[in-house]
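Journal club side-thread
Mid-discussion, someone asked how the predicted structure for our own chain would compare to the paper's figures. Pasting it here so we can look after the session.
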Amino acid sequence: MREYILRRVVSMVPVLLIVSVISFGLLYVLPGDPAIAILGEELGTPETYQALREELGLNDPLWVQYGNWLGRVVRGDFGTSIRTQEPVATVLLRRAPISLYVGAAGLLVGVLIGLPAALISALRPGSRLDVSVSMLALGGIALPSFWQALLFVYLFAVLLRWLPPSGYTPPLTDPWLSFKMLLMPAVVLGTHSAAVIMRQGRSALLEVLGQDYIATARAKGLAERRVVALHALKNALIPIITILGLQIGGLVSGAAIVETVFAIPGVGRAAVDAIFFRDYPVLQGAVLMLTLAVLIANLLTDLAYGYVDPRIRYG
């Protein structure tokens, strides 16, 4: 197990390196100039502008800039935010727990909705309930997150005034207010995950329920609840866990939209703000952090296979 984890951790290094090269190159294709973003188009003299570009290292060749940046990253220095003059590591570490809190809530919503829906649909295939749940799942997959977020704000915050429209409150500061502020972002994040979990979970359960050992368990007189819980669901968890691992990546990418719409100060919001302000160090650090989160989620998914199915061994 330790050797497998070590190999997986080592394999993350080239992935992060490739992502860093791509993100670093694409950032400099974007229009705009960080020096102008700092000074303003009507502020500063040409001499001040050139001095600032020299200070930021923007006049160096691209490969030199990348090498300098990568050398600092290896030492744990992600640079300084062009916008706030704070260390990038400080900015991201302050925002990472917020994104983790919102993302975990979204994943929980997806599991609590998607897994029961998959069970209900698989136990009654072809019924009206199955068709209705499948249609809702397709709608959840096709529904854009930004549109759903805006719709929720208009319905529950503006019209009904049940929930705050946006913002974030730490759960330890005010648990009830934090829950109300978290509810809409978590449901928006969890809708797509619930739909995918339902569709894939239904297929996995239908396949397992058609196996001979399920028929044998039923022939022994076991209650249907025990057959489903102890035999069918456990053996269908492998594909469901795989989908959960993939959905974590989707939650990471969707967090930027949700955090922006609901004004949540997470890593995704920091990346979006960095794009508008041409704050390259923050954006580069955010991309690496989000990539690392996806890689860790995939590693945890692979490790979960061994706990669900003892026949799986890590050679």
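Post-session note: The chain has two domains: 32-77, 91-308.
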